[in-house]
Design goal:
Strand content: 15-25%
Largest sheet: 5 strands, mixed
Radius of gyration: 18 Å
Order of helices and strands: EEEHEHEHEEEHEHEHEHEEEEHHH
Distance between the termini: 27 Å
Structural class: alpha+beta
Strand order of the largest sheet: 10-9-11-8-12
Number of helices: 10
Length: 244
């Protein structure tokens, strides 16, 4: 399993154990396909696709977003979750931020991660690029909030829920998760598991078990301990996401 350290999707915990929603789901599926041994191969996120191609591992297990560009290089399973966005804000949300439109209308200062899709969502809603600051991660974003360098930090809700679990930033809270819109169109994103191009039989077998788990509710039961709730479950397909 090729992983990138990004809780709650996949990571190695302080005991040196593989954890996260993606490995938990993948293990359950592969065991049903007859695979009993699993070895995590941690790499930087940008190295996941090259590592798959060079046979360092057999599948990307990192909650990777499925998009048109990646689909040229990776054969994706259907997504097992749908991404939502959220804002980290000062306690009490004094600027009443609930959407990118609110950030734009208020002329507010927004932080987000380097290369995050949230930059495009914000600009698409009228947020001036000069009002957007980028940070290495959510922890740095919370520190910027506490220092009043930004009014909010935008990112995927799941990663920010995980960051807040540290309890080290009591003056920060998160808004309710939402699906961002641009020009009135919902920007639905989903993440899945990546196989090498041509390994269709393996991907299809994986998908078959994944769909059974969705239908029975087992997928949600496995994912819930990692912060996933029913609103993160999805009916999106890889075909839909690859066509965008």
């Amino acid at each position: 399993m090729g992983i990138a350290s990004e809780p709650p999707y996949a990571s190695i915990n302080s005991q040196g154990e593989l954890t996260g929603e993606a490995p938990a789901v993948a293990k359950a599926i592969f065991q049903r396909l007859g695979v009993q041994r699993f070895e995590p191969v941690p790499v930087e996120f940008g190295a996941l696709v090259p590592g798959l191609h060079s046979f360092q591992y057999d599948v990307i297990v990192a909650g990777m977003f499925i998009n048109k560009a990646r689909c040229q290089a990776v054969l994706f399973s259907d997504p097992d979750y749908e991404s939502k966005d959220g804002f980290l804000v000062p306690k009490g949300n004094p600027k009443k931020i609930a959407s990118y439109e609110d950030v734009a209308k208020g002329g507010l200062r927004m932080g987000t991660g380097i290369g995050y899709a949230e930059i495009d969502y914000a600009v698409g809603n009228g947020v001036a690029k000069g009002k957007i600051q980028t940070y290495g991660d959510q922890i740095a974003g919370m520190e910027a909030l506490e220092a009043d360098r930004i009014d909010c930090f935008a990112g995927t809700a799941l990663t920010m829920i995980e960051a807040l679990k540290t309890g080290k930033h009591p003056k920060v809270e998160m808004t309710h998760p939402f699906t961002p819109q641009v020009d009135g169109k919902p920007q639905r994103d989903g993440g899945g598991y990546g196989f090498r191009i041509g390994e269709t039989k393996l991907r299809d077998a994986f998908n078959g078990e994944l769909h059974k788990m969705k239908k029975s509710g087992e997928l949600l039961r496995i994912a819930r301990p990692f912060g996933f709730t029913e609103e993160f479950m999805t009916d999106l397909t890889a075909k839909e996401l690859c066509a965008r």
